[in-house]
Amino acid sequence: MEAPVVFINNSFVPASEAVLPVGDLALQRGYGIFDFFKTLNNKPVFLDDHLQRFFNSAAQMRLPLQQSPAELKAIIYELLQRNHIPDAGIRISCTGGVPADGYSVGTPNLVITQQPLPPLAADAFDKGLRLLSYNHQRQLPEIKTIDYLMAIWLQPLLAEKQVDDLLYYRHGLVTECPRANIFIVTADNTVVTPERNVLKGITRKHLLQLAGSLYKVEERDLKLDELRAAKEAFISSTTKYVLPVLELDGAPVGDGTPGEVTGKLNEVLRKHVKEHVGE
Amino acid sequence: MEAPVVFINNSFVPASEAVLPVGDLALQRGYGIFDFFKTLNNKPVFLDDHLQRFFNSAAQMRLPLQQSPAELKAIIYELLQRNHIPDAGIRISCTGGVPADGYSVGTPNLVITQQPLPPLAADAFDKGLRLLSYNHQRQLPEIKTIDYLMAIWLQPLLAEKQVDDLLYYRHGLVTECPRANIFIVTADNTVVTPERNVLKGITRKHLLQLAGSLYKVEERDLKLDELRAAKEAFISSTTKYVLPVLELDGAPVGDGTPGEVTGKLNEVLRKHVKEHVGE
User: Fold this and answer.
1) CA distance linking residue B94 with residue B97, whole number of Å
2) How far is the C-alpha of A155 from the C-alpha of B259, rounded, in Å?
3) Which of A15, A22, A152, B263 is deepest in the core (most CB within 10 A)?
4) pLDDT of B101
């Protein structure tokens, strides 16, 4: 397969030409934003939601975008057509550009890349996740910046502890996994997810709507201790749908097997995504 | 003047060709390190110190460098010769490279850039600095990563508050400015600077040695309240030498004018730098 075409600023270029100047503020000072969504059979999933969040991130970070959401959408559809990768992950990035003084926002660079996204392993849900709690609060948590310094830096710790991912907490309150939102199910089947200091996932948003017609739902502070004692826990993300958290810091969560509410929510989410893309 | 030549990985390239792939982990996930030093009349200032810190940052971030410190030094001297910019700032960067999975360290990219560095304004010392305290702790503070997200994001706040720079603190303890170390002088002429959770500047290191033969010196936790009540306060950095802090959060520090100890330390530092470059 040919390398996918990339969109930079105003044009589509071959992947080999998809480069940015070393002076860009993202490379110099880690200053940039992005969003990430998937396509199923060439149909973008929740594209409007992702574009809305991307434009919001850009505004919060004072990164003026050249294109309107509608123009960006047209560019994305053209990228899909050019690349022909039916099941893909698409990343829209905007960097700080090359600053005059090396320290302030310049003219932002917009980059849109597409990569094949293999389906989740068939046994992913049953295997579930083992998480490691880690005392950390992301900077500017409600903006989707490129700051994943701690998450990348801690990769060897995950291997060492034989866990699948981190779960950030601060002052005893759970926030999120580096690339996923966290939920618990209480003894009385209330679905709870943190409200503050987290990146509000698009899957999280849809899942909360779906869960609301089936269960009691609460967005509020969530104590790490509550998670340890929860009947069920799970995460949500664009690529993972819903996956049960079966272990936290080496101890089982709930009875250590995927819970009933978790399974139901994964089922309704998958159905909702299928309907969204018209299948 | 021609644009300066840039060194990338194994070769010197024109500035226009100094680019990195959009898939680099620095652009994708803000994962990279750097160091920055200056030259005076083509002579690098404290180069060995900077190289040592750079290699330490690389090791801490698990970024394998292709070159030895001696090889890097030879490359830097060749860059100086090619560019002919006698008074310059040189930035050595190392990024996470393009990861196979988009999320772990690949083959790092090494970038060395040189830019003219105008001398500090003649009245910089007398004007001093107005700082704004800000509750923030940098991630991995003792490693010189590219994470300046908060510092760049807060630039408009500096303009709004009419101050020159931020002063980070957490739990009542002062740490550092985004690009400078902070010191106070107590009533009995003890020079105090924070020891923990800061990037240990090369100028800080030399200044502590110089100060040690003139005053009592303490590296320890420093309370924000101590700074507010200090006789003198100042910052140190590669580009700024020593500059007095005359105002914090709108209130004068000390008597609001450059202090005697601050002046003396700036003088001995400047003399030390001159001697170092053989002038």
Assistant:
1) 8
2) 47
3) A22
4) 83
In whole angstroms, what is the distance from residue B155 CA to residue B159 CA?
A: 7
Residue of B nearest to A30 (CA): B30
Task: Say if residues B137 and B168 touch (Cβ distance below 8 Å).
Answer: yes
- Dist. CA B92–CA B277, nearest whole Å: 20
Q: Where are the beta strands (DSSP E) in A30-99?
A: 32-40, 43-44, 88-95
Which has the closest alpha carbon to B251: B225, B277, B269, B272?
B225
Summarised one tens digit per residue, pLDDT across range A83-102 is 999 999 999 999 999 998 88
Task: Please write the tens of the pLDDT for every residue from B2-58.
Answer: 689 999 999 999 999 999 999 999 999 999 999 999 999 999 999 999 999 999 999
Give the best residue of B17, B27, B31, B60 to mutate against chain A (max A CB count within 10 A).
B27
Helix or strand or coil: residue B232? Answer: strand
So what's the pLDDT on residue A100?
Answer: 84
Q: Say what the alpha-carbon torsion angle A98, A101, A104, A107 is, to the nearest 10 degrees.
A: -30
Asked whether the beta carbons of B202 and B50 are under 8 A apart, the reply is yes
Beta bridge partners of A109: A95
Report the distance separating Cα A75 and Cα A149, nearest Å: 30
Residue of A nearest to B111 (CA): A22
Percent helix / strand / coil, chain A, rounded to 5: 30, 30, 40
pLDDT tens profile A26-60: 999 999 999 999 999 999 999 999 999 999 999 99
Q: Which of A34, A111, A139 sits opposite B149 (nearest CB)?
A: A139
Q: Is A126 helix (H, G, I), strand (E, B) or coil?
A: helix
Cα angle value A169/B29/B57 (rounded, 5°): 90
Contact by Cβ (8 Å): A79, A5: yes
Global ipTM: 0.96
The CA–CA distances, whole Å, from B224 to B65, B141, B162, B229, B234 equal: 39, 18, 20, 9, 14
State both tokens at B272.
């030390």
Tokens representing B197? 């959770």
Chain B residues closer than 8 Å to A24 by CB: 27
Q: At what angle do helices B69-83 and B47-60 cross, to 10 degrees?
A: 130
**The two structure tokens encoding residue B94:** 């190392």
Residues B146/B33, Cβ–Cβ less than 8 Å: yes
Backbone angles phi, psi at B40, to 5 degrees: -120, 120
Question: Looking at the complex, does the CB of residue B177 fall below 8 Å from at least one CB of chain A?
Answer: no
